[in-house]
Amino acid sequence: MKKRVGIEALAVAVPSRYVDIEDLARARGVDPAKFTSGLGAREMAVTDPGEDTVALAATAAARLIQQQGVDTSRIGMLVVGTETGIDHSKPVASHVQGLLKLPRTMRTFDTQHACYGGTAGLMAATEWIASGAGAGKVAIVICSDIARYGLNTAGEPTQGGGAVALLVSEQPDLLALDVGLNGTCTMDVYDFWRPVGRREALVDGHYSINCYLEALSGAYRGWREKALEHGLVRWSGTMPGEQLARIAYHVPFCKMARKAHTQLRLCDLEDAVGPGPGTPEAREEVAKSSASYDAQVATSLGLNSRIGNVYTASLYLALAGLLQREGAQLASQRIGLLSYGSGCMAEFYSGVVGEKAAERMARADLEGVLARRERVSIEEYERLMKLPSDSPEAKAPAPGTFRLAEIRDHKRIYVEGGAA
Question: Which of 47, 83, 90, 374 is the most exposed place for a label (fewest CB within 10 A)?
Fold first, then answer.
């Protein structure tokens, strides 16, 4: 009997502070609607030097273990997907293993491919378990990143930070993956990059959007071909993409999900078997259907709109937001997921939402995670942004969270917040 493998549970960690996106717009002399309607943003997470990728990753993993009652002796693999790692040799995963005192018998490593790194880790863990090599063990995959573009830049309102930790096992209470039906597309492009030594990324914005959409097309068509072969979808009264209950996309900013969904529908319309819109213009018009977007995509964006861009974690924030709102309603239904990383790599995959998804998401307490944040002024946000990355301020971490306390002889020292 084929193993059922996928995501059993998840947990989210976010920075302790945020700014209201309308405050930021007014401070920059911009109509707030440009950020709220134009980008789909409401709030933006703000990190300080003590809330680095390791601290966020460790907090998310500790929260996952505590909230979901994970037996740590069963963890056989720990992977961190990140494009904002803190060392060229020592992985974030090794820090997390030590901070959480996890088994020394685990396999630990980081995966890097811009925003795709977390999905690379998820697929490695899924296939490790599905192959039998995991021998009954579970894996934790953490997507942890800080999106930083700098003050008064075009990318400023699309910053953010946070981490999502995924428990991957043969008990996929959240999402049982359709193992082996993935579609992939990779291209060597320079749409977004961050040279060694830089804190802020460089991005060719319009080109990057085009690369995203082209890679999405290749990945989705690859998935669709396999899904058609296996009878998961069919050319019938509705297009194959419409037969997925929901679709979650990589979300560098919320409005990108609308562009992505239009492109996916365009793929189906261009390849449709039988009569359809005859001209490219007509297909484009049908592809932009607000009804399809509202039904399949819109409900996944609540967390992303309140946290901002989290690179590798952005798709998984969308998944978390979707299952937080509709976990019970979607039980036993198939959803699609599109991961994109600049440079570039896209992967489209699917899975069936578990019967216990709503119960698992309730344990994650996502509303509580957001409610514990502090809203800060633009002045305080700008002060935090100007702090050097190697000089964290003396600040006690909140209970159950981790924080970088100091860097001593090139060694990073982290502390954990005690009980409330």
Answer: 374
